Every structure is written in C-alpha cells, then in structure tokens.
What does this fold into?
Amino acid sequence: MKQKQRRIDLQPWQDSKAKPYIHLEGVSKEFNGVLAVDDVTLSIFQEEFFSLLGPSGCGKTTLLRMLSGFEMPTKGKIYIDGVDVTRRPAYDRPVNMMFQSYALFPHMTVEQNIAFGLKQERIPRAEIQERVKEVLKLVQMEKYGSRAPHQLSGGQKQRVALARSLVKRPKLLLLDEPLAALDKRLREQTQFELVNIQEKVGITFIMVTHDQEEAMTMSTRLGVMDHGRLRQVSTPNEVYEYPNSEYVADFIGSINKFEGLVTEVDDNHILVDSEETGSELYVGHSADAPVGSHVKVAIRPEKMMIDHAAPNQKKNVTKGIVRDIGYLGDVSIYHVELKSGKIVLATQPNLVRLAERPVTWDDTVYLFWRAENSIVLTA
It folds into this structure.
C-alpha cells in the first residue's frame, strides 16, 4: 500500500524558489566617512510584516530612509518588486512612509488630511471620497472625519496617519517607530489592530522599532541590527529561542549565561563543565564547539525551575541564596546568588497570593532546567 506523504507548507523565506518582494544587495551608507549601514543584504517577501530592531544609532532608521528614497546608498542596490529603485527619488517609488510624529496638518480635518496625497495626484473627486471613506472604515474612524487633529487622542491620530498612508495603496508601507507616542496600554492594543489591518490590506509592512516586545508581537520576521550590520534575521520565536550570538541573546529579553569548558560533543548534545554553577551542563543539541573550547551556555529565566528541595537530576542544576525578588503581578523574578558570586535570574508565575509565596528572601534554593531549554553561544 502506498503511504500518503504529508505536505509541508514552506514560508516564502524558506522556499529557495520564492521571489523576494524587497531585496537589498550589499547596501551601505556613509556619513562623513562613518558607516551608518554596513553591507546589508536582505530579502523581504510580499505581505510580510518585517521589523528592524536595534538600539539607537544602529542604522535601522537610515536603512528605512534608503528604502523610502529619502537617502541614497553609498553603494549597493535596492529592488522593489524586481525593479531597481536605488537612485529613484521618494516620489517615484511605490512606497509610503508613516512617521513617528504622524505629521498631520493642523488646519485640515481628518478627511482632508487623508485625502491630501490623492488630491496632489489629481485623482477624481468621487474616487477620492470613496477611498477616504474606505480607509476610515478600515481604521474604525468613520465618525471622526470632520474633526481637527487637536480634537483627537494619540491613538486616534495614529489611526489617521495610518489611513493617510494606506489610502494611496502603496506596494510597501514603512513605519518609523509608529507606536512610540502612545501609552503602554494603548500601544499594546494598537499592536494587534495594526497587524489585523496589515493582513486585511495585504500590503508589505517594514517597521523600525527599538521595542523588543513590539517587534516580537507584530512581526512575521525581524532583523536585529548592531553598528550598521544585521546580526540575525529570523522569526521572533527563532531569534528568542535560538539567538545566533551573545549580542542577540542579550538584546532580546533577559538571559542567564554560564561559562564553561566543552568536554563532550556529538550530533545530539554537548556537555560543558562549568565552575560557575558547580555542575556539568548538558545541552540537548549540538554546536560548533570542539572539545576543550570555552563557551557560554545560555538559558532564559522563565525556563528556570526553583525549589527548596534538590531535584532528581545531576546535570543542569545549581544552588544559591535568594537575594532579591521582583514582583510584577503575573510573575516574580528571583535573583539567586550562587556560591561563585554569580547572580542568576529565575522567573516564576504567581500561581498563589504573595503571602503564600513558597520561596522568599534569604532562602537556599536549587535552580534546575531541561537540557532542551538551553543553548550554546560561541559567537
């Protein structure tokens, strides 16, 4: 009997035959002899929500401005939908940009702000009205068309700016820190709204942000930047769970790192002798680290288990004293000092009320974790 094969649907970035919608080839940008963007090659696919993530001054906004046409590369090529747009000015690209400040005209109503770009293109009045009505409904602002910008909240201004960007039906929408001006609760709510709108309109979005949580929540993929270079490009899950370098591991969330010496390697695991933890660390995957090399074994705080009693395992376990506890409502972060003096973080959900906390200050505790939850950092 012929066995039925299971079909695996590849994402476009996993498919060698897929054609990228946006392609940057060896793009660099210098300002007064200083490299702001350094030899970036990147492919982004149609209908992706891609985020450029990094600290201030890492080159992410310069890269966005080169995509928009506000800056020209010192070298390299930029392609949009297969067309070389490297030297085209901003007005001659199928691109729109939503700025951090929203840049709404204060003397115009919401409808007039949204319609402005269409009027500049001399689109017929009836079509302008229809398209403005369409995007106002999309961003749930139908009732606010006659209001002035100063009569709107921060979240409403953000929606108007988005509507103005979408009404021209660009192939690519660039977003420069689009939610930075919003308070935390509104920002979290708007993140999901923005993703839903992007899925409805089917336009490729590229967003610049320094907010890790924002990038992780909204992106199909993200690129972590440092000193003008892309350090890792992958899905949020892969960047968080499998960072390819110590820089990326440190930048995305909190992480514990233990130094040690590799004593055993095969295709399925790596064994590291760590003086810092006083035990052997067993990592449930291989790594490019030969026996005798110095590495760091990394594990996220939420993957740590903490208990007064010694666990039933000899590897991936260490012992220390609780020096501090950070209470965040849904979770608590335990700061545990090991015998070596190293401080290790362990995040635990608050399943019971604070008064019933099983582990508290100055307790001696064991920290332990699963082999598959740790990774080896060699870069």
